[in-house]
Amino acid sequence: MRVANLAGRAVVLSGGGSVDLNRASGGRFGPGPQEVYERWDELRDWWSGVRADPEPYRESDLREPVPRPRQVFAIGVNYAEHAAEAQVETAERPPWPPTFTKFPSSLTGPHATVALPEGLVDWEVELVAVIGRTAHRVPAAKAWDHVAGLTIGQDLSERITQLSGPAPQQYALGKSYPGFGPLGPAVVTLDELPDPGDLAIGCDLNGEPVQDARTSEMIFSVPELVERLSAVATLHPGDLVFTGTPGGIGATRTPPRFLAPGDELVSRVEGLGTLRTTFERA
Q: Where in the numbering of this chain does the Fumarylacetoacetase-like C-terminal domain appear (predicted)?
């Protein structure tokens, strides 16, 4: 199942078209995309018996599939290659993953144009886990049962704001400008993927590959992240976990490279589709 937000309505993308969940269910499910995660198990059971004719849609009408999460968790230096390029010393399996947040107001859809603020704006393609069941103190062995599905995210980051001090650094602010959280195109359930723990991930800038890795290279896997986050916080249906970026960001290149007006960033994760983000001057 691939759940999406089509012009503000919850749909399932199927057979090259879309099925409006509110209309197909006779009003059983509301039209809002966020509400489906509160009734995720019920939705999956109902969808398994649905026979509906998909309707054509325009990809440009797709918006962020999780538009109003209560919490957005983000994980830092979760790939060894990224830790090395950022000159962050980390053990192969440190006790806790570096964790911060992106404010939900930064989220945007899979075909967005983002206004660049002053500063140095960088890219970070990420696998994003969407929570489907309330999770508190959930062991890794049961963590996938609490994940509704996976989607693609970009953790866009303005580095001057992010690294300003004196202490602590302003990670949340530097990563939460409007449009700094492209998300989508859909939330894909795990049964659609041959191995949800090992997916190709990467992004291209103006057609040039700049990041290329596999999610199996994460230091903390999705189940381990759910275990550690839920050991402290209660995770709610519809919450997002940005799971970290692989190597290849702009700030660590020689010379450094940052996003500019007119750039196009295409982010991809195997089995999940692509995000296409363009940039303009604010």
A: 72-279
